Amino acid sequence: MRPSILDPLFVPITSLAGVGPKVGALIEKVVAADLGDRAARAGDLLFVLPHTVIDRRNRPGIALAAEGAIVTLELRIDRHQPPPRGNRSVPYRVYAHDDTGEIGLTFFHAHAAYLEKAMPVGEHVVVSGRMEWFNGRPTMVHPDHIALASEAENLPLVEPVYPLTAGLSGKVLRRAIGQALGRLPELPEWQDDAFMRRESFAPFGDALTRVHYPADPIDVAVEGAAWRRLAYDELLAGQVSLALVRAKVRRLSGRPLVGDGRIVEKLRAALPYSLTPSQEFALAEINADLADPERMLRLLQGDVGSGKTVVALLAMARAVEAGGQAALMAPTEILARQHLATIAPLAAKVGLRIAILTGREKGRERAETLAGLASGEIDIVVGTHALFQETVSFHDLVLAVIDEQHRFGVHQRLAITAKGDAPDMLVMTATPIPRTLVLTAFGDMDVSKLTEKPAGRQPIRTVTLPLERLDELVGRMLDAVADGQKIYWICPLVEESEEIKLMSAEDRFASLKPLFGDRIGLVHGRMKGVEKDEAMRAFKQGETRILIATTVIEVGVDVPDATIMVIEHAERFGLAQLHQLRGRVGRGDKPSSCVLLYKDPLGETAKRRLSVMRETEDGFLIAEEDLKLRGEGELLGTRQSGTPGFQVARIEVHADLLEAARDDARLILSRDPELQSDRGEALRLLLYLFGRDEAVRLLRAG
């Protein structure tokens, strides 16, 4: 049960004064990109932090105010000049002066009664806003703040600026945040006293207040003392949460998996190539984990084409040798069937019994697969989310392999765990997107890396091209197809959308069909499984030479002689996705290229993404850049972008705090695994504050 001291923070935001359903819906957009099934709470507002400030401490006087500067002026009001009656195109002007000169305050579509009340003639007022000069005359258009001099102490001299959404004003959001802050109770300290003194950290409530009511721009700076205090709290909450998840997984004792080597050695002999040094090293680490009585929870990171699948197959063969079953789970049916096509011929050579289970398998075929899994007749099953279903049971699942691990959350990892008696787990990713990087950095998993690509892989030349030069690109494609090359063309949408004006896969297919005739194919996620299979078969066998597709082919698709990748509206894709798509070419012995088609004008983030893609093919470097551009994502859920995974911490700034939080969490849990001490009780409050409900549930579940 949630501690009652936090109840004031767990009320809906619509219970705050001035926050009705309409305003509440707008605030929810700012609080989080996705709150799941719950409504935003008052406590969520505490961590909607300002991204900058407006410094209104500059009081130069009218004559000395610089063009474009934010200034605060103390003025005496001289006269009002309303626009002619009925002519709203003429602004309302208020003229005032100080000891250095005269200024005109300009208001468009103004309410005269309000302005006359706020700035009576003859009164001294304080105004703040951006200074502008026209023909040598000073003016201020729509001052941000107006107050009588006698009430000027209420003027925020350092005003925080928050992220907003259309229809929501900063003033309304600040008022709601202030109410939430007023509901924050005095909480017991969860930080170590010596650490607090060493870091010069203020108490939690004081740090939050300083960020929301800054006295100086440093109070809102990511590297400032107040922000660092909150960042450490969030990092500690994350570290404790992940440690508890890991302890829960580890607590389910596994069993040693040591085979006699007969299947593994046959598999090695059947491979048409030798393993790379990093594959050998990763396999040794995995085998050591399998042989250990403690459960394995290992992440296998390997760039596109580095050979993760064969490492996974050898690990699964080891599990079968030890008398158990293995499952390989993929996020899409296409990828699952690609895995099956890759490993089935090798499995057949060594006597491994293998099957597939996706949403497509029906009737007798599905029933036979389910029966084979339950009886133990099937050694390895490849599948999608269908493996989670209640009707699926295993005779003895001892190893679960999850491919493209960033597509699955902790809950799904725990769900597959429930299919066996504490099976070992190996999760794989080709490009560690930000959330995966952070999971790794936070110690949720042991890590193995594949750092080389198999011999013969060709570098990929990457170029950017504006959509205005599309005709030129199509001309080159005609030449490439005539030369026997194969081309992927990726579109961001399946079909035309009224909301998003982008070229869809179906429209692009229709526009190119007259030029390429039967040599062009189409595949997307809304097609039936049989139709997708046929489109991929035709492309792989060369019956079609151009494949128009959505990101359904992002992972796992292997057509070695495809040499050109065109990604339309590349500015709409994330770095990890661009890298995955590019990895569909360069898989054979011919030079390959990737064309990133973009639409001007590009924002700064999109420019940086495309630049990174031109500069490197290193998936790990790309993932690091993705981390900087997108943020870390949610640690215990499935959200991939920075908000709301980390509202406070910034890994590139707070790396030192991450290390300290990791050590602190390990020390705390080694002394108090159930968080029963006074400090442990305080840490429970911290977990609730930062939304680590999953960790609290694990504590209660023991």
Automatic annotation (TrEMBL):
Primary enzyme class: hydrolase
Top-rank lineage group of the source organism: Bacteria
Record EC number: 3.6.4.12
Alphabetic keyword roster: ATP-binding, Helicase, Hydrolase, Nucleotide-binding
Protein name, per record: ATP-dependent DNA helicase RecG
